[in-house]
TrEMBL record:
Chain intervals with Pro residues compositional bias: 449-467
Protein name: Amidohydrolase
Domain of life: Bacteria
Phylogenetic lineage: Bacteria, Bacillati, Actinomycetota, Actinomycetes, Micromonosporales
Signal peptide location: none
């Protein structure tokens, strides 16, 4: 048996023996359900596990209190793993076959973000065990990247240089099926915050002031008319959220704020929409005599495929095997499908492996995801592991209900094994890394260099003035409270 085979056997056996390390972390983060940029205790749980297993941990990196970087080993190659752990506001769901939020405003996990960091940390600890036992060369870096749902964490980490000097990145995400990302990766994403300023005055004499909310509303009306003028080739979409419209109704608001997020297959599409948004804001402010300012708080680059690394990651997934879901969970899924009238889905879970596919034509820009920031700094592969009902277009509750159940445990355990097995191959196969590096250089040359997109003076939206509403509410709730909350 070769040294690589022995190391592969070690990580697989260790993860089987210590299965609860990843699943208990997943359950703990599910219980905490902390939304993006507020994931304090979730990040602490991951960091404590890494520190207890020999990793050095740096917290609060890139200006984000819940971001971290953990390292083990020295020298090359340096393989990076990725943690996400943010819940989505308003998406909590109990494990029952009908809509049942924990509370109407509680955060929850529609796509198993509670398990992403848990599986990566379990994989990192298993690889550390193999490195120590078999004397494997190199080092492991684990990135804690907050607020993936806002695509905030990784762009700031990239801008501040934390992704420089890596030899490869092995990421993962749940999907209805198990495969590896190939050509058709996530599109580009940008989030912009518009603040309008007016003159507050008593509401019974509105002509004596300027309503910032009216200016914001007018901007939004203009944006609705602009949507049909976005060229279809960009596959672009625009969404908005009014995050502040004033403090009380008896006076004209002198401040109003909205978040606009837009997606596109290309940065050209992002730039087109950004220019249109700014024209709308300028026109609305001019028409009503208001002022406005614009801040870009998230901006991602497009996906750069790396087939060499993807093939290695698929070998890791094949060695791990597809997840197998317990019969009671299949029965629960059948009840969900019966309620939704989806008799076309049988069996409810995908327990097979799907070989990576080449590019297909999309009708939309793809999901928002800042994982693409890694692939401009190093060869990047992303493993997909089956989770939830094997169908798209289901309501969020129908997928979210499995995030705290044995379905999640099976997905997390499979992902941890696939990541660990892939990482061991990369640590022990310099020829694979060399091939991936050559492809990486070729892809960057073909696409044209694209440095991180955020300005050097842009700060993450973590203070009350720039944060989304749920973060502001979280910050206010924390004022005067003890930071330690009983488990």
């Amino acid at each position: 048996m070769s040294s690589q085979d022995e190391a592969l056997k070690t990580v697989a056996g260790w993860l089987d023996e210590h299965r609860t390390l990843g699943t208990s972390l997943s359950d703990r983060i599910w219980e905490l359900a902390e939304p993006g940029l507020c994931e304090q205790r979730s990040a602490e749980a991951l960091c404590e596990t890494l520190a207890d297993n020999g990793f050095s941990v740096e917290t609060g990196v890139a200006g984000m209190p819940t971001a971290f970087v953990a390292r083990y080993g020295t020298g090359s190659p340096t393989i990076a793993l990725m943690c996400e752990y943010d819940a989505t506001p308003g998406e909590s769901q109990l494990p029952v076959p009908y809509p049942a939020p924990v509370s109407p405003i509680a955060a929850g996990f529609t796509d198993l973000h509670n398990g992403i960091g848990a599986a990566s940390v379990a994989a990192a600890v298993a690889v550390r065990q193999a490195m120590a036992e078999h004397g494997l060369p190199g080092s492991i870096t684990v990135f804690g990247t907050p607020a993936e749902k806002l695509c905030v964490g990784k762009p700031f980490l990239a801008r501040d240089g934390h992704f420089d000097g890596l030899d490869a990145v092995v990421a993962w995400h749940p999907r209805p099926y198990s495969t590896v990302e190939w050509d058709d990766g996530p599109g580009c994403y940008q989030a912009e915050v518009y603040d309008f300023g007016g003159t507050s005055t008593y509401a019974s004499k509105p002509w004596t002031g300027v309503s910032a909310l009216d200016a914001l509303t007018l901007m939004n009306v203009i944006v609705q008319f602009l949507r049909e003028h976005i060229p279809p080739a960009y596959r672009a979409s625009v969404n908005e959220l009014v995050s502040s419209g004033g403090q009380h109704p008896t006076a004209l608001p002198n401040h109003a704020q909205a978040w606009y997020v837009h997606r596109s297959l290309t940065r050209e599409g992002i730039d087109h929409v950004a220019a249109a948004l700014d024209r709308a804001a300028s026109s609305a402010a001019t028409a009503l005599g208001a002022t406005y300012s614009r801040r870009v708080v998230a901006a991602t680059r497009p996906w750069l495929p790396n087939h060499s690394l993807a093939r290695a990651a698929y070998r890791g997934l094949e060695r791990a095997g597809a997840p197998a879901f317990p019969a009671p969970m299949r029965d629960l899924a059948a009840q969900v499908l019966q309620r939704l009238g989806r008799t076309d889905i049988d069996p409810p879970f995908d327990e097979t492996l799907t070989p990576p596919q080449s590019r297909i034509t999309r009708e939309f820009a793809g999901g928002a995801d800042d994982v693409t920031e890694f692939c401009w700094h190093a060869p990047t592969a992303r493993i997909y592991v089956a989770y939830g009902i094997a169908a798209s277009g289901l309501p969020n509750w129908a997928q979210g209900l499995f995030s705290g159940t044995p379905v999640a445990h099976q997905t997390v355990h499979t992902a941890a094994k696939a990541i660990a097995l892939t990482t061991v191959e990369l640590l022990t196969s310099p020829e694979v890394l060399a091939e991936a590096a050559a492809e990486f250089q070729e892809r960057v040359a073909q696409a044209g260099p694209m440095p991180p997109l955020l300005d050097p003076d842009t700060r993450p939206p973590v203070d009350p003035g720039s944060a989304p509403p749920y973060v502001r509410e979280h910050l206010v709730a924390q004022m005067g409270r003890a930071t330690e909350v009983p488990a």
